[in-house]
Amino acid sequence: MTPRNRACIVGIADTPLEKGRVPGGATVMQIQARAARDALAEAGLGMDDVDGLLVAGSWGMPRPGSMSALAMAEYLNLQPRYLDNTNAGGSSFEMHVGHAAMALEAGACEVALILYGSDQRSGGGRSLGGRPNWFDLQFETPWGMPAPVGAYALAARRHMHEYGTTAEQLAEVAVATRQWARLNPAAMMREPMSVADVLASPMIADPLHLFDCCLVTDGGGAIVMTTAERARDLAKRPVAVRGYGECATHLSIPEMPDLARLTCAERAGAEAYRKAGMGPRDMDVVEIYDSFTITVLLSLEALGFCAPGEGGAFVANQRTAPGGDFPMNTNGGGLSYAHPGMYGIFLLIEAVRQLRGECGDRQVVDAELALVHGTGGTLSSGATVILSRE
Amino acid sequence: MSEKPYGKPLPMPDLETQPFWDGARAGRLRLPKCNDCGQYHFLPRALCPHCRSENWTWVDASGDGVIYSFTIAHRGAGPAFKDDAPYAIAIIELAEGPRMMSNIVTDDLSRIAVDGAVRVTFDAVTDDITLPKFTLVEAA
Ligand SMILES: [Zn+2]
User: Which of A60, A221, A298, A351 could form a disulfide with A345 if both were Cys (CB 3.0 to 4.6 A apart)?
Assistant: First the structure.
């Protein structure tokens, strides 16, 4: 029996982009308001139904990162009774789905709205340089640490050292993801790409090449959640939240407990599997945060899709590409679809579309169960969500 | 007296980290050592991360360590580091246990390897700030 208060995703929207930018330009608040309207409309709900609001972004007032949920409540003329401003980097939205699920199950709200907006490409850039050199950063920035790519390069080097992982294996991830992007008209990068192309792209932070790195785009998204009972009367086939988990281990990369092991993902994934009563082999489609190719290998190992150190072999021979036996990052990922800085909401949106059967040429046949895993900071935080057709 | 200004980001010491930077300026690599559990830690924290004791002291470290991981930045971190590229950033595992980020100073980046032995050196970049960096210790 399906519990009446099981949390479901009932509406989604993402901001249309042209060459990685919002056409005509928009503020982060305009981006989010339009995404909110579209996600609610898709569900058959209105703004006045919203009583839970969850927001994360790199913007904020009075300074970046702060009080964005308050700003959006004001901007949308909402007085939410459940509010969540959790910001753990790109994994924030997987955390938001978990938090909203708990709030819905507990009756703390009835309709939860999750929001994200970014003008990163139009307004600035991906580099996190220029941050004040205080707290942890006084021990990073003075040495010329390129953030965030340098942190991921350090993890990749350690993984190579411990397990013999190769640049070719990392490149397999970028190539397979590009193959999916070629099937997605909304993806930014759709030209064919080979392993040789990745290896020939400029070295950014050895051992990571340019095409091991995510795109720099604008973007925005919204997710609407409610209970299974209320979802029955809504417009879209609901997608149920079956399990979730989250964990954080550090902020600054030298503090990561083990650079070759993503322990925050191990813990988040184990909790999500436990709640769902499922394991990695049950999943039909997998959406994994791909800020960099190494992020994917570490996540696959941590989530139990393969043993520690076997990520490189696991993704060999385009296993995760269309037609392979492990469909992953089916919208083209942060590597080829879009990456506005905090990518996690797009993993969730794509998983919902796959479970609804809305994905056209890139549809995974009979996708009934999806695993989504977000990573935030510099491999600092992880959050897993398991979704199913309700 | 027409020395070129340093022009790169400098650390912003605070109440908790000032002793580290004062030590570096005096040519000493200092680490917090817990008087209760005897273990070292870094970054500095109000409470020892091993036993949560506030009873710890800054002590001089040996300055020896090994490279836990490293990357060669082929694009500098912003305009200030643009002309330095390529340069090496590493996480050093100090002999005392804690890890710290720094640069590997060498004329030959190809000699840098994970597990390679390193020793601290001090780069006085301004009158106030000295950055601890590391050099390769060549095997005998
Ligand atoms: Zn202690």
Answer: A221
Q: Tell whether the torsion through CA atoms of A7, A296, A131 and B119 is positive or negative.
A: positive
pLDDT at A2 (0 to 100) = 60
DSSP-derived secondary structure letter, A292: B
Q: How far is the CA of B31 from the centre of ligand 1 (A)?
A: 13
Can you say how many angstroms the Cα of residue A22 is from the centroid of all Cα atoms in its chain? 19
Please return the burial class of A41, using the count of CB atoms within 10 Å of its CB with bins 0-12, 13-18 and 19+: middle
B8: nearest CA partner in chain A: A142
DSSP A90: B
Label the pairing between strands A52-55 and A111-118.
parallel
Using a 10 angstrom Cβ sphere, with 0-12 exposed, 13-18 middle and 19 or more buried, the burial of residue A302 is buried
The pTM of the full predicted model, rounded to 2 decimals, is 0.97
Q: Quickly state the pLDDT bin for A3 (edges 50, 70, 90).
A: confident
Under an 8 Å CB criterion, which residues of B touch A?
8-14, 17, 43, 68-78, 80-81, 84, 86-87, 89, 91, 99-103, 114-115, 129, 131, 133
Quick check: do A7-124+217-238 and A146-215+245-388 share a fold?
yes
Verify whether the Cβ–Cβ distance B89 to A253 is below 8 Å. Answer: no
The domains of chain A are located at 7-124+217-238, 146-215+245-388
Pairing of strands B99-105, B130-136: parallel
**Could you give the ipTM of this predicted complex?**
0.97
DSSP state of A344: H
Instruction: Determine the pLDDT at residue A117.
Output: 97
Other beta carbons within 10 angstroms of residue A87's beta carbon come to 22
Mean pLDDT to the nearest integer, A259-282: 98
For domain A146-215+245-388, give its CATH number from 3.60.15.10, 3.40.47.10, 3.40.190.10, 3.40.50.300.
3.40.47.10
Is some CB atom of chain B closer than 8 A to the CB atom of A138?
yes
C-alpha gyration radius of chain A: 19
Q: Does the CB of A135 have a partner CB in chain B at under 8 Å?
A: yes
> Tell me: the pLDDT tens digits for A290-336?
999 999 999 999 999 999 999 999 999 999 999 999 999 999 999 99
**Structure tokens belonging to residue A26:** 């928009």
Partner-chain residue, chosen from B43, B72, B76, that has the shortest CB–CB distance to A255: B43
Mark yes or no for CB contact A147/B68 under 8 Å: no
User: Which ranges of A88-242 would DSSP assign to H, the alpha helix?
Assistant: 92-106, 120-123, 149-163, 167-181, 195-200, 228-231
Q: Which CATH number fits the domain A7-124+217-238, given the four candidates 3.40.50.620, 3.40.50.300, 3.40.1110.10, 3.40.47.10?
A: 3.40.47.10
Tens of pLDDT, residue by residue over A215-248, are 999 999 999 999 999 999 999 999 999 999 999 9
pLDDT of residue A348: 98
